[in-house]
Amino acid sequence: MTDPAAPAVPPASTTAAAPEATSAHPAVNLDTVVRAAGDPDREQPWADLGLKTDEYDRIREILGRRPTSSELAMYSVMWSEHCSYKSSKVHLKQFSEIPQETRAGKMLAGIGENAGVIDIGQGYAVTFKVESHNHPSYVEPHQGAATGIGGIVRDILAMGARPVAVMDPLRFGPLDAPDTHRVLPGIVEGVGHYGNCLGLPNIGGEAVFDPTYLGNPLVNALCVGVLRHEDLHLAKASGVGNQVILYGARTGGDGIGGVSVLASETFDADGPAKRPSVQVGDPFMEKLLIECTLELFAAGVVAGIQDLGGAGLSCATSELASAGDGGMHVDLEKVLLRDSTLAPEEILMSESQERMMAVVEPDDVAAFLAICAKWEVEATVVGEVTDTGRLEIDWHGERVVDVPPRSVAHDGPTYERPFARPDWQDALQADGAEALPRPAGGDELRATLLRLVASPNLADKSWITDQYDRYVRGNTVLAQPADSGMVRVDEETHLGVAVSTDCNGRFAKLDPYAGAQLALVESYRNVATGGAVPMAISDCLNFGSPEDPAVMWQFAEACRGLKDACIELEIPVTGGNVSLYNQTGETAILPTPVVAVLGVIEDVRRRTPSGFEAAGETVVLLGETREELSGSEWAHVVHGHLGGRPPVVDLAAEKALGALLVDLVGVATSAHDLSDGGLAQALAETTFHRGVGVSVGLDAVHADPFVALFAESAARVLVTVPAEGVNELLARATAYGVPVAAIGRTGGDAIVVDGQFEIAVDEARTAWAATLPAALG
Amino acid sequence: MKVGVVTFPGSLDDVDAQRAVRIGGNEAVALWHGDADLQGVDAVVLPGGFSYGDYLRCGAISRFSPVMGEVVAAAGAGLPVLGICNGFQILCESHLLPGALIRNDHRKFACRDQRLRIEDTTTAWTSSYVAGSEVTVVLKNGEGAFVADEATLDQIEAEGRVVARYLGGNPNGSLRDIAGVRNEAGNVVGLMPHPEHAVETLTGPGTDGLGFFTSLAVWAGVAERTFA
Question: Are A257 and A48 contacting, i.e. CB atoms less than 8 angstroms apart?
Answer without folding.
Answer: no
